[in-house]
Amino acid sequence: MLCIQCHLEVNEGKRFCAECGAAQFLHCPKCNAASPIGKSFCADCGTSIGGTPSTSHQTASVVVDRTPSTANEAKDVMSGERKVITVLFADIKGSMELIEKLDPEDARAIVEPALQLMIDAVLHFGGYVVQTTGDGIFAMFGAPVVHEDHSHRALYAALRMQAELKEYSARISADGHQPVQGRVGVHTGEAVVRPLKLGNGQIEYTPIGHSTSLGARLQTLAPVGSIAASEAIRQLCEGSCEFNDLGLAKVKGVSDLVKVYEVTGLGKQRTRMQRSAGQGFSKFVGRARELDSLRYAAQQAQAGSGQVVAIVAEAGTGKSRLILELMNDIRSTTKVLETSSVSHGKTSYCLPLIELLQSYFGIEAQDNELKRRGKVIGKIENLDPQLKDIQPYLLDLLNLNNEDEPLLQMDERTLQLQTWESLKRLLVRESVNQALTLIFEDLHWIDDQTQEFLNLLAESIGTAKILLIVNYRPEYVHRWNSKSYFTQIRLDPLGDATAKEMLASMLGDNEQLSDLKRLIFEKSSGTPFFMEEMVKALFDDGTLARDGNVVLTKKLDELDIPSSVQAILAARIDRLPAHAKEILQTLSVIGKEFSISLISSVTASSPEKLDKQLKELQLGEFIYEKLISGEKGYIFKSALTQDVAYNTLLIERRKILHEKIGLSIEAVYPISIDDHIAALAYHFGRSNNIDAGMQYLTHSGRQKLMEARKKNELVSHNSLTKSESPEVASVADDQVATLDVLDSIWRYPVKSMAGEKLASVFVSDKGIVGDRVYAFVN
Fold it and tell me: Among 268, 375, 390, 271, which residue's Cα sits nearest to residue 320?
């Protein structure tokens, strides 16, 4: 099973997670007995527990029973974080009228199962039930554990909820009761998620923010029996779900009109690559060598030497796109079967295998059970009558066996092994007729059963005309490396030249956009998906527009992180152990790069402990080692990772860390303090230490002004002497930039670092004059 805190595997029967220490049980509110998560009633006394709607708010949520081990950890646990989450509100429409004339126990017998269906739908997709009311629930996705697809999970839960409520309503209507109809509202946005410690020692998580309130309002706007979603949800989930535009609505507490959509069902695009295909692909660049490796493996497989090719890379680097480009080349010469794991699929039995078989047998969503059985049996008989013995096993995997099937009497493990063998025989036999290419994507989310089948298949294809292509992120491990027919392809982010080529294909060659392109590349570190999402976000918010060419319509101070990118990076950060995540957040406040002496001073950790923590971050490729002014130091692999880690911290926590870092810089670099004035101004300027911040801002401003003055004097000298030296020419080119710096000077009366009042300074033709200090503000 999966841990409720970190969602990593927990061995069956274990009461605590070996990774994060979270308890995998709830305490009964009556007898205090421990019961496993997921159980609705206490096995000792029968009291309702763990998400049952008839209980109090305290037991209606899946709570994380994690007691901090130290005082410092307790402080951090209780401080909360800023997170982008998706909230879901659901209720039973007209519940008062439904139970008006019923005895309370009869009313409970009708309402409680409906609420349990809502809760089960949330838990199935990894959501967290924050609160239950008499006739509804409040849930969130993306916290306390971050999922990169939290908005999708919320919609899947809402759709499942409505489908099961309709089935339940039909059953009770047949017994003479009034029908039960639900309304659901879903919204995604930023919130502060704070853990609240209850009296019994358990910790409960509650989101606070405007996003939460808007989600609650959307529920009231939802058509009866349907789901209302915001524009933010539509942007993230369009393609994977179908939306019906309900127009603009006035929402209490929101000054502007709110765009509302009805979610009508699942869409046809399940993967990110399918959604990208619907929007149009960017130019494929920088992967010629890797594509050649795939083509060679395909040639080997088609000649009868089976191959296993693994593409490993971080999210957004282009694993799926590389496979797509190969398929464009070889689809006419091979039969292709594709499937993928999903982040919430570990709890779904053999989901990738079921989808693979449905594709192979041509099973459509609208097919009834009889038609599905006919397709399976007919396909196998046409392929090879001698494979008749595998039919019942594959029918069972597809849940199409008759109730009197003898296989149902077989023990579960034997049935499972026979099913894997049957599926392997089917695929190997198919490859005799034509070369077969099998694609399994996102193995980092694979369920145990599908993994077991892949292990069997990888052992069996060395002499078959089968090309097995898998892709996964670096944290996934397998046991195929020793095979002579195994090839691993690692994808790194794009380099400077190829990233420029890709951005030019999206934005054109307008020189006015060169700074923007550079900023996008630096922020994304060359990750193709991140670059695409940034460009898309700039078009969506109107910063970029097409007028024959792409043009910048307004000044751009900084790049916002698109929600889709933030979710991926936040989920990766959240999978870190608590101590590693804490130091990563601290490093994000220090800056893009940092020396080991400064880190040591800020964290006050022992050298051994600090070295271990930094190595963890290195192994995860969050940071790289780098020499900084001749001293060992580190640099963030990605500026976006730094930004996302920084943004998770509450503002007050940031201020404390900024001041702590400023004090550490003073302590570590007392002799060369002038070299760190800008950093001191930056950190103290963002802390609660206003006096120090103002002093260093002033000093930094004076440094900037003197630099600007020297440049202007050099330019003036050049105009008199007509010098053509490269140095002077370079400064002349920077004259406009220098004047922009002067225009950015901020006027404010302050004291010097020593405490005395200073005369004002600014650069003019007559030198330093005036009665106010001018400080430079970044």
Answer: 271
